[in-house]
């Protein structure tokens, strides 16, 4: 059996930082499931379906990446996919505390599934979907932050503002 990883996130929208982790993860694992989650504590700009479409478009040239969505516990999704690993990106020390809490809970739920942390490329260490949305909302240049298809989708969301 090959190595399978799940790369979860809200991806609202996907950025070059996310894409960096997905591409590098695809080199390490035989199969990477990008799992788009609906974070109930956030108000998303894009629907889950729109996010899946955007991610599918920007990862279409990575044959071992599959984009899906899931409702429920991530650990249940990982089990369903027979994944041995949850792949998470870290930007800065500030991400670590939150990620440690999630990882610790996942380990309680299933200690057979490991979490693999990958540091984001330094050029994306400041980048978050929230920042991208804020810049796009005020018509700032986001071309170096997101793929072109995502840039167009963001511009269409804020066209009337």
UniProtKB/TrEMBL annotation:
Enzyme Commission code(s) on record: 2.7.7.3
InterPro entries the UniProt entry points to: Cyt_trans-like, PPAT, Rossmann-like_a/b/a_fold
List of residues binding ATP: 10-11, 18, 89-91, 99, 124-130
Cofactor needs: Mg(2+)
Residues of the Cytidyltransferase-like domain: 6-134
Record-listed substrate binding positions: 10, 42, 74, 88
Assigned keywords, A-Z: ATP-binding, Coenzyme A biosynthesis, Cytoplasm, Magnesium, Nucleotide-binding, Nucleotidyltransferase, Transferase
Reaction(s) the record says it catalyses: (R)-4'-phosphopantetheine + ATP + H(+) = 3'-dephospho-CoA + diphosphate
Keyword Iron: no
NCBIfam families for the chain: coaD_prev_kdtB, cyt_tran_rel
Protein name as it appears in the record: Phosphopantetheine adenylyltransferase
Source organism (scientific name): Metabacillus litoralis
């Amino acid at each position: 059996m090959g190595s399978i990883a799940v790369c979860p996130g809200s991806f609202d929208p996907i950025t070059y930082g996310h894409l960096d982790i997905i591409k590098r993860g695809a080199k390490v694992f035989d199969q990477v499931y990008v799992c788009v989650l609906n974070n109930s504590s956030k108000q998303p700009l894009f629907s889950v379906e729109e996010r899946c479409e955007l991610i599918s478009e920007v990862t279409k040239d990575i044959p071992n990446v599959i984009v899906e969505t899931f409702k429920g516990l991530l650990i249940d999704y990982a089990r369903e996919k027979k994944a041995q690993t949850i792949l998470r990106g870290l930007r800065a020390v500030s991400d670590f505390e939150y990620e440690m809490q999630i990882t610790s809970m996942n380990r309680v739920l299933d200690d057979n599934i490991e979490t693999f942390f990958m540091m984001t490329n330094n050029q994306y260490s400041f980048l978050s979907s929230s920042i991208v949305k804020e810049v796009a909302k005020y018509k700032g240049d986001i071309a170096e932050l997101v793929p072109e298809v995502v840039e167009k989708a963001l511009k269409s969301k804020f066209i009337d503002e």
